[in-house]
Amino acid sequence: xxxxxxxxxxxISTITGDLLQTAEMKRHGEVRxxxxxxxxxxxVLGRPFLLLTVFCMxxxxxxxxxxxxxxxxxxxxxxxxxxxxxxxxxxxxFLKEQVDARRWAGACLVACGVALLAL
Amino acid sequence: MTEHKxxxxxxxxxxxxxxxxxxxxNFALAWGMKHLPPAFTFTPLSLLKVIFNPWIALxxxxxxxxxxxxxxxxxxxxxxxxxxxxxGGYILSALIxxxxxxxxxxxxxxxxxxxxxxxIVLVGLTQHNTTKPVAVHQESAEPVEMLx
Lengths: 119, 148
Hints:
The complex is a heterodimer. Helix content of chain A is 80%, strand content 0%. By secondary structure, chain A is an all-alpha fold. The longest helix of chain A is centred in the N-terminal third of the chain and has 27 residues, at 2-28. The radius of gyration of chain A is 16 Å and the shape is globular. Chain B has one domain. Chain B has 6 helices and 2 strands; from the N terminus they run ααααααββ. A two-stranded antiparallel sheet of chain B has the order 1-2. Chains A and B meet through α1, α2, α5 and α6 of A and α3, α4, α6 and β1 of B.
């Protein structure tokens, strides 16, 4: 029961963090690497969505560490690999990204591949 | 160079940066943690000292660079594009583990690696941005070029 609760916490925090991060960075616009522009872009780090992103990443990281104390790595990695597919679904719904068949297939292949890597 | 080519090249370069900084950062952390003094304990003071271990410091620096480069990539590329194409980090980590940490790669892991490569190739064939231009660089009020 506890391992699956932790998997839920990891998936929700990872997905929320990635969606918030993408939304904020898209709102900021393309980051340019010329000196002055890059310095201005670093100002984005203090925005509320990105601070929430860092919080979500920290929750995900510590929940993953906790998961490793109650379950094997061969359970932890495959169980959380579903984020690839779920995030693709949510990117389509909330970020209005156009996900064609190749992207669906690619996300599913990567999720299966990551799951196999842990076995 | 057209706008499309410029952004495509930038996407490829930054994808490589994201993949390498993540894999090398994780390797540096793993190497540093495996070579800690035998008397190491997980007390707050010991953990603070660990940060100044050169390998751990290098790992943390690389992972900060990973986070910043991924953020930059997401400023113009789709999340549903970035997630699969940067999964190459898993493969690189497995190879680094085999070469430098003497870890075994089983047949199942090689199969997983092949699936990831196939997924990356498939997603890599799609456009990196499918959303409409949504942003104006707020600090400079400069229009942001996105793919149409």
